[in-house]
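Module 6 notes. Inverse folding takes a fixed backbone as the condition and produces residue identities as the prediction. Think of it as a translation problem where the source language is geometry and the target language is the twenty amino acids. Below is one complete input and output pair. Work through it position by position during the lab.
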């Protein structure tokens, strides 16, 4: 299936479309699709279970999760995993 060309501003059209199909906003999908190697898994970070609440909060802030300041550690982990 050929993907639509979204112009120069979107570097990975297939990933952008997949993210939009999953319900992400245009800006968030574009931000992720334009990140270098966003589709590759590095496996270099420890699992979220090993992170402190502050580390989870900072990661949630980095990826733009709304309502993060009111979330506890378990809620932050769920939000970061996309559930």
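Target side of the pair, the amino acids:
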């Amino acid at each position: 299936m050929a993907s639509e060309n979204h112009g120069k501003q979107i570097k990975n059209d297939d990933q952008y479309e997949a993210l939009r199909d999953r319900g992400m906003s245009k800006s968030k999908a574009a931000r992720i699709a334009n990140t270098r190697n966003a589709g590759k898994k590095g496996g270099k970070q420890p699992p979220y279970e090993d992170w402190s609440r502050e580390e989870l909060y900072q990661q949630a802030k980095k990826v733009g999760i709304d309502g993060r300041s009111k979330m506890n550690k378990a809620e932050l982990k769920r939000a970061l995993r996309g559930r």
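Reference fact for the lab report: The chain has two domains: 7-38, 47-83.
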